[in-house]
Amino acid sequence: MSYLKTLTAFFFCAAATQSMQLNASTKTFQASVTAHPEAEFSETQALNFGTIATFVGASCALAADGSISGNCDASFADASTGNISVGGLLNNTLLNIQVSGSTNSYTSMTAQGNAILGSRLVPLEDGVPVQVNVGEDANNFNLKVFGAIEVKQTLEAGQNYHNDYTVEVSFQ
Hints:
Layout: H1 2-19, E1 40-45, E2 51-52, E3 59-62, E4 68-70, E5 72-73, E6 82-87, E7 94-100, E8 107-117, E9 120-125, E10 130-133, E11 141-151, E12 166-171
Antiparallel strand pairs: 1-6, 2-5, 3-4, 3-11, 6-11, 7-10, 7-12, 8-9, 8-11
Signal peptide: 1-24
Keywords: Signal
């Protein structure tokens, strides 16, 4: 019987010890994060296809080197590739770059470009995002924009017509 009392006392003490909780201290801390800054754009040279014929279907292409082909005349108006400076980026940032042309009732423009990241030249096609890393030593890059334009509706001689194009930089 004494053995049974000892065994019962042992289990009672063990159960009591297991149900006891030690006092603990807790403290809540905050984690923080800073959102990427927005890219800063600066147009250093406007994109200009020169002078185009007025008839529907007239088209021309402006190459990266500034040469014109098709129904455009670069000698009458100053044809030039567009140059965009993109800054305000974080070093060693993975991002997508995209250039896109547009269509309006008079003309349709297809945009192309070359992103210049240090010594790297990254070709861009209309509406196609390209993933790049700006590098450890860079927080900016330059973009040369060129492409093609086509007349969709007869143009009035001597009038200026415009197409928007969009440069998009998004972070990964």
